[in-house]
Amino acid sequence: MKGGLSAFYAALWLPRFHLQAVLCRQAFSKRWVAVLDGDGDGSNGEDEDMENKGRVLHANGRAEAQGVVAGMTASQALARCPRLELLRRDAQGERAAQEVLLACASLWTPDYESTQPGLCVLDLSRSSFAEVKRDSREAGQRMREWLREKRLGVRVGMACKADLAILAAFAARPVLTLGDDAEDGAKLLQHLPLSVLKPSREVMEVLRLWGIRTLAQLAALPRAEMALRLGQEGLWLWDLCRGGRGRLLKRVCPVVGYREEVELEHPVECLEPLLFLLRRLLDDLCGRLADAWLVASAQWVQLRFDDRTVYENTLRVAEPTRNAALLLRLLHTHLEGVSAGAPIVAVALELVSVRPFGQQSGLFERGLRDPNRLAETLGQLEALLGAGQVGRVKMLPSRRPDAFTLVNYLEPVAAAEASLPGSEERLLMSNGLPLRRYRPVRPVLVGLDEGGRPEALQVGGGGWLKVTAAGGPWLVSGDWWNSGAWEREVWEVAVDDGALYQLVREKQGWVLDGLFG
Amino acid sequence: MIPANVISLREVLREQYPEAHAHALSSGGEMGAIQTGWACLDGMRLMQGTVAEIVDERGSAGAGLLLLALMEAERESLRPRVALVDGADAFDPASASMETLNRLLWVRCRDANRAIRAADLLLRDGNITRVLLDLQFCPAQALRQIPAPAWHRLRMLAEKAGTLLCAFTSFQMVPCARARLFLEETHAVEALDGSREGLLSELRGRVQQRGGRKGLERRLNSMAEAG
């Protein structure tokens, strides 16, 4: 086929797909092999009752030469070929083989459909590969070679219509290219059996009674009569055997995931071998990110242990990157703080991909020199001090003391949080000496005067301190509507050693809440 | 010779963004010293890449006020990234403004030893330009057990990272502090109702400087006299 085509399709067909899917994953000693239908459970020839179950789906060439054909029972097949090795379908192998087929298609064009198991159609109309335009047979041979390396045998058909390309693939030995002329194609396809069109059982039976065995015989029938007698399906079959109508492909849009899972043959007990493994996974995932011009904004790691427990965590990457060494350092820092009661038996790692972005901080804000290094340092600080001890303060809507939580320092501040509080609240915060809290609060003995005001304090078994001035009390309470109700009587006292304390009476008694200064 | 158009561009920028040039415009400040606008802190001549110490023996002399002032630093030309290494987990977020909290990295420690290690990590990191180490509520016995080499290591790390490390203590304990401020005057109960700006502007203390340009000049003069 020479260049200048407006539409050009290629079909890749794996003959004896189910058999190939089994054979490409395993090596078999016997030369006569057949695969039986039924659910693919992955067991191969070990089932003693296999002979009594299922029918032959596909047999290899040697077995077919011995008379084994599709549709035979296992007993019939063995009767014709006693040395025949019967295999079960391998569902996992079939999925893998189909993926390999689609991977081959994706090397040539992004426009391809997974038509059925063992068959895919490529739209090469806009392919930039010069050899497709120049010599389609050469392109077909290259597709075959690529799949042969994956232990899969393929037939390639090329034509100006998708359905015609499929028929060409069925007729190919091993590559067949049909010209623009549908009549020319139909001549080449005249010997194809009717079964390649996969008609319904009823229609197939009618056509068989009519004596129609091949596409050429079907194509010779008048179209209008086919429509009258066999309805819509008959019309569709007639059009198919004449090369089909122009149609759009149901494009495969693979969901790109940057995830790797590894089941370990030998359980891992310490960090070094785990890091070695993680580095390998990260190299692979970062390479895939680089191919798509993406970077990782977070990494999710899951460790499964021998005692069936699972540990998982998501580590945010401060500055999205695809630097494997840097991502590994973040993981290393985090995993140093993780301990487990059993060895690791499986590892899963997933990178959350984002597009690289540029961001300028405020004109009068100093940016971070190395956000990823700070993220690592924050991880080290958490390992030193415990989780939740390092971060940015986020206030909670409550008047209760210590109503706050710590959030990740590197997370951007939400607009609602960044807004300044009202003028009244701002005035309160900018007034007086700040308080520094005792955590936990310190129990204190308090001597009261006749009016019930504190006049002396005794902290931690020391001497009594005289209260020189006292402000208060202020009664504060909250959450009275639920079980977490609290109530406090707050005093501000100056003692004779010069310190200013916040003194609080709670249900349990008097405590020193903090020191002003 | 700077071209005329560059000079005029600089003038336009200075007029348009006076905040960015506040440092250059500030008068009386030592070259490179941090200008906070509060006499007490500016008198210490705090420099990036050095260690400073603020000593408040009684706890109510204003160390907390200065801690917040160094976090907020609204009068500086560029707002720094601030970390508070809280040796005794004493910081009360309700005392600070939301704007300050949004820029603050709070490291809550339970003992002095971990606080020193946390400060070490932050100084090695180099991303945070101001580290405030609050050891005031830590037990004196634990503070005395901090070896002097640990402080010298922090000084070298601060110097390398160009970070200001300011320690808040209840007694003089940082051997390599370039600037030290002793707060001695305690506040009365009435101070709890005063404005924070007023309290900060009235805050006084005894400043002790070590090294620096004057120290170097003194040493050179003494060497010249001896020679």
Descriptive terms for the model:
heterodimer, A: 517 residues, alpha+beta, six-stranded antiparallel beta barrel, five-stranded mixed beta sheet, 16 helices, elongated, B: 227 residues, alpha/beta, Rossmann fold, seven-stranded mixed beta sheet, 10 helices, 7 strands, globular
Write up what this structure looks like.
The complex is a heterodimer of chains A (517) and B (227). Chain A has 517 residues and is of the alpha+beta class. Among the domains of chain A are: 258-354, Dna Ligase, domain 1; 433-516, no CATH class. Chain A has 16 helices and 20 strands. Chain A has helices at 17-23, 61-65, 74-80, 91-106, 130-134, 136-149, 162-171, 182-188, 201-210, 215-219, 223-241, 271-291, 324-336, 371-385, 415-418, 423-429, and strands at residues 9-13, 33-36, 56-59, 85-87, 112-116, 119-123, 155-159, 175-177, 259-268, 295-305, 310-321, 344-354, 390-395, 404-407, 435-448, 454-459, 464-478, 486-495, 500-506, 509-516. In chain A, strands 15-16-17-18-19-20 form a 6-stranded antiparallel β-barrel. A 5-stranded mixed beta sheet of chain A has the order 5-6-1-7-8. A 4-stranded antiparallel beta sheet of chain A has the order 9-12-10-11, covered by helices on one side. In chain A, helix 1 (17-23) packs across helix 4 (91-106). By secondary structure, chain B is α/β, with parallel strands linked by helices. Chain B has a single domain, classed as P-loop containing nucleotide triphosphate hydrolases (Rossmann fold). Chain B is built from 10 helices and 7 strands. Chain B has helices at 4-16, 22-25, 39-42, 63-72, 98-103, 112-125, 140-144, 148-161, 196-202, 212-226, and strands at 51-56, 82-86, 104-108, 130-134, 164-169, 179-183, 206-209. In chain B, helix 5 links the parallel strand 2 and strand 3 (104-108). In chain B, helix 6 (112-125) packs parallel to helix 8. The N and C termini of chain B lie far apart (41 Å). The model of chain B is unreliable at 24-30 (pLDDT under 50). The interface between A and B is large, with 58 and 65 residues. Strand 13 (390-395) of chain A pairs antiparallel with strand 3 (104-108) of chain B, so a sheet runs across the interface.
